[in-house]
Design goal:
This protein has a domain at about 25-80: F1FO ATP Synthase, CATH 1.20.20.10. About 90% of the residues lie in helices and about 0% in strands. The protein is built from three helices and no strands. The longest helix has about 45 residues, at about 5-45. The protein is rod-shaped and about 70 Å long.
Length: about 100
């Protein structure tokens, strides 16, 4: 395996991980926006439900916040324990290179 191929695999992985993290951050922000808008809409319809709606909003928001951290963990696995390097080595050995 040439150093250029290894460098290209790491660079491609880093680029894709960046795109994935950006998408996760955007999805989380969009989710928070939807959660908060529905919370305000619920308060506007039934003001007496405000405490119950706030608890539900915060629980759902906490779950929404967990999503980018899960994606971050998976992304770090791709960066530090890159499975594509081993797969590329096996593929090159199987073709006889």
């Amino acid at each position: 395996m040439t150093p250029e191929l290894i460098t290209e695999l790491y660079a491609s992985t880093a680029l894709i991980v960046g795109i994935i993290l950006a998408a996760a951050g955007f999805a989380s922000a969009l989710g928070w926006a939807l959660i908060c808008s529905k919370y305000l809409e619920g308060i506007a319809r039934q003001p007496e439900m405000r405490p119950l709606l706030m608890v539900q909003m915060l629980i759902t928001g906490g779950l929404m916040e967990a999503f980018p951290f899960i994606v971050l963990g998976i992304s770090m696995w791709f960066i530090f324990a890159n499975p594509f390097i081993g797969a590329a080595e096996m593929a090159i050995k199987s073709i006889g290179g």
